[in-house]
Amino acid sequence: MDETAWSAEQFNDTLYSIFFDMMRQKGIEFTREVVVENPYVYCDPIKLREVFTNVLSNAYKYTQPGGKVHMQLEEVPSEKEGFAYYRTTITDTGIGMSEEFLPHLFEEFARENNSTDAKVEGTGLGMPIVKRLVELMDGTIEVESKKGVGTKFTITLPHKIADKSSLMNHEGVVVDPKMFKDKHVLLAEDNELNAEIAIEILQEAGFVVDRAVDGLQCVEKVRRAKAGTYDLILMDIQMPNMNGYEATRAIRAMEDKDKAGIHIVAMTANAFEEDKREAIRAGMNGHIAKPLNLKTMFKILSAVMILPKDGVIS
């Protein structure tokens, strides 16, 4: 386990935003509800992401157009002081599973044979991995399903409660003050909490920070500014109005070559290898995964600052 302080609400926001467009394009109604008293927790976000993306991916794959998927996050008090349980329920109106298959759901390579399954790719390893990760985090996973009606997963995990200041604590990370001092960065980030944390960290490192609340505003800020105003753009991917890929392509297409060649780095929770490749294909110079690992982040930023215009940090 590699635990760090993070926001449970923000984590849920990210999951929702990643799957919302996919669900909408397939004709699935995707809704969610969040009821938590303590939004900041210590967790291993990489393992959490694998758990919930597996479950949501199955809900997406096995729910037909016109169906519904609902995700609910609620906090449940714990007898252990300083801890709370966070229960996530993911319900779909998909094809469901038979009572006979349910006991085998978490076995490796187990897939129920039916005509719909034959059209869906998969190894049968997703659910066993999910169960092992949940147990590693001292949690529980329960499933209810009825063939032709749908499926309900309930994942309950204990987390140590954190506070907001913990998200900004990056003691032990050494930054060369001459590398970033007075460098002007444009941060494209729609989430207020993410923006607040990133601005705090960047300013402490010496950057001068300007913020755009979405991709469209980011493009406009670059277009209106004098060439050379910004040394770097940190670009979120999932944003309203214009996403990070679209914004990057728009900047790369500008007539002013100085503006078109500005270094752009993805800073996003879309952290799979395909996401990194898509960022590079869109014209970005590098990729930083959220939640932020400060050592990795500053290492990438240091390398990007000395890159040629078309250079890429792999």
Description:
The protein has 314 residues and is an alpha/beta fold. 36% of the residues lie in helices and 25% in strands. It has 11 helices and 12 strands. The chain has helices spanning 8-26, 45-62, 126-136, 164-167, 177-180, 192-204, 215-224, 244-252, 257-260, 273-282, 294-305; strands spanning 4-7, 29-35, 40-43, 68-77, 83-92, 140-146, 150-161, 184-188, 208-212, 232-235, 263-268, 286-289. The strands form 2 sheets. Strands 1, 2, 3, 4, 5, 6 and 7 form a 7-stranded mixed β-sheet that branches. It has a 5-stranded parallel β-sheet with strand order 9-8-10-11-12, with helices on both faces. Helix 6 links the parallel strand 8 (184-188) and strand 9 (208-212). Helix 1 packs parallel to helix 2 and helix 7 packs parallel to helix 8. The longest helix is centred in the N-terminal third of the chain and has 19 residues, at 8-26. The radius of gyration is 21 Å and the shape is globular. Mean pLDDT is 86; it is low at 115-124.
